[in-house]
């Protein structure tokens, strides 16, 4: 059973140099208990520090990091998690870090339900 990309939770944002904003301002809430696969990709331009973490109920599950690459930086990570109905998942930028995205979807967050419990 596949569900909408975390309720259309695609990382589409305009990142402003003066602000440190969350990669996503929305949260995915598990509609049913089960085992879920989720992944995220992040992109930054050269000379920019990029760091993004995936959280489950305010607990960091995994992260990606790129420290001032000379050219564009890309990173990805994925997890398989047991979620109970109502558990929340979301991604967050670390302080003083940056990501880039545009219509080509260089930065994204998605997943699907593997099986119910």
From TrEMBL:
Pfam families, per database record: C1q
C1q domain mapped to chain residues: 1-117
PROSITE patterns: C1Q (PS50871)
Keyword set includes Repeat: no
Entry keyword set: Secreted, Signal
GO cellular component entries: extracellular region
Cellular localisation: Secreted
Signal peptide start-end: none
InterPro entries reported for this sequence: C1q_dom, Cerebellin_Synaptic_Org, Tumour_necrosis_fac-like_dom
PANTHER family in alphabetical order: CEREBELLIN 13-RELATED (PTHR22923:SF102), CEREBELLIN-RELATED (PTHR22923)
Record-given protein name: C1q domain-containing protein
């Amino acid at each position: 059973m596949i569900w909408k990309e975390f309720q259309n939770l695609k990382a589409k944002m305009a990142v402003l140099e003066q602000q440190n904003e969350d990669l996503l301002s929305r949260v995915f809430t598990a509609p049913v208990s089960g085992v879920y696969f989720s992944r995220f990709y992040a992109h930054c331009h050269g000379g920019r520090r990029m760091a993004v973490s995936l959280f489950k109920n305010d607990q960091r599950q995994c992260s990606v990091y790129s420290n001032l690459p000379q050219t564009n930086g890309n990173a990805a990570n994925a997890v398989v998690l047991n979620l109970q109905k109502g558990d929340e998942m979301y991604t967050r930028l670390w302080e003083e870090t940056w990501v880039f995205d545009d219509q080509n979807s260089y930065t994204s967050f998605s997943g699907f339900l593997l099986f119910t419990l």
